[in-house]
Structure formats: C-alpha cells, structure tokens
C-alpha cells in the first residue's frame, strides 16, 4: 500500500476544486488517499471523497481559543507524521500549510515545501505566481493547476458530469458570497432573477446562504414583483453545509456569484448561471465541466485586488442590470450587448477547463491562448507549443531566474 496526502486548508469551494487531483490519486492502483482539511469541512470532504481518509485541522480564525487550536494542530500533526506518506501535496500558500510541510522531507512534497527553514514552491507554482502579475491573461483554471502536480492527471471530462437540470421546477439563488464585492447588488440580482423566472415558466425559487445572508435575502425579496416574491422560499440560515449537496441535487439551475456552492453544483452536475465581477475571474475559478453559463464583467480594472478599496464604486456590477442583458437571460433577442460584459459557456480541452466567449469580446484572448499553450508545453501535453509565443508573453510566463539558474526544487 502506498499512502498519499493532500493538504487543502482553504474554504469549501477550494475543496471541490481539488477534485481532479484527488481523482487522479484515487485512480492510481495501490494508493491509500488521505486528505487534510479545515476541521469544519471534514464531514463535507467525506461526502465528496468517500474513499479518502480525512483529517481535520483548525485552519481559520474563530475556530477556538489559542490553546485549543494549538492542541488540535499538535495532535493532527503528530498523527500525520506517524503515517508513512510516499507523496504529500500542499495546495495553499499559507503559514499553516508551510508549518505542516515542515513535518516531511522536501522530496516527499509537491506544490510547496519547507527545506532548512526556507519556504519553497514547485516550478509549476512558480510559473503560476508569474502569471498572477496580471490576472487578465490567466490561462488556467485553479483545479487544473493543482491537478498538474500529479504526473498523469485524469482526463478533464472525467472530473464532473455534464450539467443537466433535475427537472423539479426549482431554481436556487445564492444571494451573496463570502466577499461582498463579488456579489451582485440586490436590485441587479432581482432583475436577473425576474428574467430567469420568466424564461423558466415560473419555477419555485430557493434563496440559499448562511445566517449572515438573511438581510440580503430580504432585500432581494423586496426588489421582486409580488407574484415572483411569493414563489421565493428563503432558506438562508435554515440549512447547514451538510444539507447543501442534497438541496443542490434537486435544482434545475443555480444562480450564484463565484462561490463554493457554485463548485459544489458543478461537482454534482447541476447547471450554473454564474456572475463574475470584482476580483472574480472565470478563467481562473469558473465552474468545471460542460453545461454552465458564466457572465464575466470585463473592465480595464478587472479582475481587481479585493483587499484594495474600489475607486469606481464597483462599476463592474452595472452591466448585470442592463436591459439587453436581462432580456438575454429571459430568452429574448436583443441587438445590443452591454459594454464591459462577456457571456461564456464552460468548455474543456486537453489541458482542462476553460471558458468559450459567445457574447461580447475578450480583449485578452490571444495572450491567454499563447500562455495556455506555453503551460501545456511545460507539462508535455501533445500538440502544445511554446515556440509560438511572442517574446512579451514568454517573458511574462518565464522570469530570468526560471531559465538562467538551475532549479533547486523541481517537483511539478
């Protein structure tokens, strides 16, 4: 038996996006797959990956007092250290992740490692950090970036089922994400809900979210016409994370910003209509698989740095309430299309997930295509071409130290 461990200490959307990597490990004969997550996600991780052995760490604030957190980390670290892992995959650039990496020899580690007190990252992740200097050119979905730490990841079409409605006449609405700026204002969301309601022939609407989302749900309901509002059931704060997979399975569609629920719906094969604005960029974190629609705000400042104040009063949300866009959602033809908005369908190629623009234009498409081909060539995919890159894009992907100096840690 060969034990492998993946350490994924981010939120539950990242847990769902780890699927391609974990499926690749599970597929390999003789592997016993272990997964270390934030302890609030242990139950969900067991449901998503029932063949994996799941360990829990207190990875986020508000997860107990300092003494309790220290004791829980020490206990989990001790248990992991006793297991003889052939490979350990670290997916998060965080202090706790590097502290965990210190338990293992760098030769065992993939993604990130700690060697002689120094935090290190793999060649693949170094290239990813280069790309983050200008995220507009992002050529790779995060799920694929993590998957390519594995030498032979499963085919993209094996990750999630093709999205199909459950045929129940119910549409779910995620009223807000963890980051407020990445969520549509209530009035814009209400306009989108009305259009989808009309296109769907008057379905039942379910508002989903945590207790802190209840004010946003009430504001949404006030913005809807009475005949639509009476079809909306507010479940915010009334269900747990453990309930969410069963609720999503019963939907014909999920309307959502870039959230963990979006990735969970894609995991289950439920169609998503996703709204991407502010710091969210669909080419990085769009829903994985076929059958999803993505609406991406594309302004000169998009995608932004969420921790910095917005000098434009979140103008990237404006196109989502434009009459031609809401008419489009309702299934009506409009000769106009709002500026600063792209309509995409989710797609797959040999590399992994991508977004095909079908409405509007992506001004960064050519550069992103070249960079994607360059990354594919680095991974040795057939038909990939790094030679066709312009000098500018080659310099963007590879910094001088990447090719002038010998790598000191070259796993993936």
- Mean model confidence by pLDDT: 92
Rg (CA only): 22 Å
Q: Which term fits the overall shape?
A: globular
**Biggest sheet descriptor:** 8 strands, mixed
Q: Can you tell me the CATH topology of the largest domain?
A: Rossmann fold
Question: Order of strands side by side in the largest beta sheet?
Answer: 10-9-8-11-12-13-14-15
The number of strands is: 15
- Provide the low-confidence segments as ranges: none
Total discrete domains: 3
CATH class of the largest domain: Alpha Beta
**Percent in helix:** 25-40%
- What CATH architecture label of the largest domain applies? 3-Layer(aba) Sandwich
Provide key terms for this protein.
alpha/beta, Rossmann fold, 17 helices, globular
Descriptive report:
By secondary structure, the chain is of the alpha/beta class. It has 3 domains: about 120 residues, Glycogen Phosphorylase B (Rossmann fold); about 180 residues, Glycogen Phosphorylase B (Rossmann fold), CATH 3.40.50.2000; about 40 residues, no CATH class. It is built from 17 helices and 15 strands. The strands form 3 sheets. The protein has an 8-stranded mixed beta sheet, sandwiched between helices. Strands 3-2-1-4-5 form a 5-stranded parallel beta sheet, with helices on both faces. A two-stranded antiparallel sheet has the order 6-7. Strand 11, helix 12 and strand 12 form a beta-alpha-beta unit. Helix 8 crosses helix 9 and helix 8 runs parallel beside helix 14. The longest helix is centred in the first third of the chain and has 17 residues. It is globular and about 65 Å long. The relative contact order is 0.13. The mean pLDDT is about 90.
């Amino acid at each position: 038996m060969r034990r492998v461990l993946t350490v994924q200490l981010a939120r539950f959307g990242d847990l769902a996006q780890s699927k391609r990597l974990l499926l690749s490990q599970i597929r390999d004969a003789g592997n016993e797959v272990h997964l270390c997550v934030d302890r609030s996600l242990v139950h969900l991780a067991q449901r998503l990956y029932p063949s994996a052995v799941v360990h829990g760490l207190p990875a986020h604030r508000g997860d107990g007092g300092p003494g309790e957190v220290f004791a829980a980390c020490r206990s989990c670290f001790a248990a992991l250290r006793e297991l003889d892992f052939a490979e350990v995959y670290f997916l998060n650039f965080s202090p706790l992740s590097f502290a965990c990496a210190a338990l293992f020899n760098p030769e065992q580690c993939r993604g990130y490692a700690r060697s002689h007190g120094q935090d290190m990252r793999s060649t693949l992740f170094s290239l990813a950090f280069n790309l983050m200097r200008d995220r507009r050119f992002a050529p790779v979905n995060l799920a694929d970036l993590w998957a390519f730490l594995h030498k032979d990841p499963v085919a993209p079409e094996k990750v999630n089922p093709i999205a199909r409605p459950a045929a129940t006449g119910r549409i779910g609405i995620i009223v807000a994400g963890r980051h407020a700026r990445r969520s549509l204002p209530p009035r814009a969301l209400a306009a989108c809900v009305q259009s989808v309601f009309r296109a769907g022939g008057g379905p039942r609407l379910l508002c989903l979210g945590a207790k802190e989302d209840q004010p946003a749900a009430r504001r949404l309901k006030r913005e809807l016409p009475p005949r639509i509002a009476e079809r909306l059931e507010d479940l915010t704060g009334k269900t747990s994370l453990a309930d969410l997979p069963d609720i999503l399975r019963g939907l014909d569609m999920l309307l959502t910003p870039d959230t963990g629920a979006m990735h969970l719906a894609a995991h289950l094969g439920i169609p998503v209509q996703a709204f991407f604005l502010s710091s969210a960029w669909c080419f990085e974190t769009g829903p994985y698989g076929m059958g999803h629609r993505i609406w991406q705000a594309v302004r000169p400042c998009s995608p932004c740095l969420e921790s910095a104040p917005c000098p434009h009063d979140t103008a990237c949300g404006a196109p989502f309430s434009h009459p031609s866009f809401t008419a489009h959602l309702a299934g009506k033809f409009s000769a106009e299309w709002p500026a600063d908005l792209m309509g995409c369908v989710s797609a797959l190629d040999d590399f992994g997930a991508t977004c095909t623009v079908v409405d509007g234009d992506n001004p960064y498409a050519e550069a992103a295509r070249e960079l994607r081909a360059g990354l594919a060539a680095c991974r040795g995919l057939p038909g990939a071409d790094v030679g066709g890159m312009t000098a500018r894009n080659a310099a963007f992907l590879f910094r001088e130290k990447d090719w002038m100096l010998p790598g000191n840690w070259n796993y993936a």
